[in-house]
Amino acid sequence: MLRTTRDARGIVTLTLDRPEAKNALSAALVGEITAALGTLAEDPAVRVIVLAGAGNVFCAGADIGEMRAAGAASTAQNEADSLRFAKMLESLERQPQPTVALVGGAAYGGAVGLVAACDIALCSSDARFALSEVRLGLVPAMISPYVIRAIGQREARRWFLTGETMDAATAMRIGLVHEAVDGSSLHDTAGRIVNALLAGGPSAQAEVKRLVHRVTGRSSAVDESMITDTTRWIARVRAGAEAREGLTAFLERRKPGWIRDP
Q: How many Cβ atoms from other residues are within 10 Å of residue 145's Cβ?
């Protein structure tokens, strides 16, 4: 589910490789991403990590079928499932090497969290993003700290509440991505960014990432509390009647019960 390639310069590309499922973040894929990041973090020869998606979709977000099943599980199981996702995001943001999200196509729900947790985000001009959780009766709990830090509270309120789809130009305007370029130029742009990253000292770059955490008033205790809070939040909402209806409606390809035709 996760394809790993590495070149002679120490550039590692992690490709979400579930194209038949639009690269949805199943529990197994989340585990593979977390394990890969942990291994790479200990490898001094790794200079940059690029996160991409196979096919024409970057990532459709969390696996809807698994989310519905988790909502019907016990509270402990529900929270444990959420915690795995939250820990993956934390690992991605705290990765000592620079990370670059390379978004071609759509990035929905949890996928926006992946983008926001990376240090640098690039997308094709036809990319689309949506924080669509409310349309399933859910909340973007675990990804919210990363997305809010990327786009700010005011923008987050709009996109969290409406679940609208935004285009690449909007994503760049609000700070979710750094550059949006023609699809044919995406890999060339990534190459330019990677070359710029290779010009920096790897130890200095790791220190810069820690510095950003420190000067923005964050600490390990604060982050751990945030993970616990958001994990419990999504577990509670996901187990509720509205989320069960929203997830079921999505899988059954119908409108959820709260939508009334005019």
A: 24
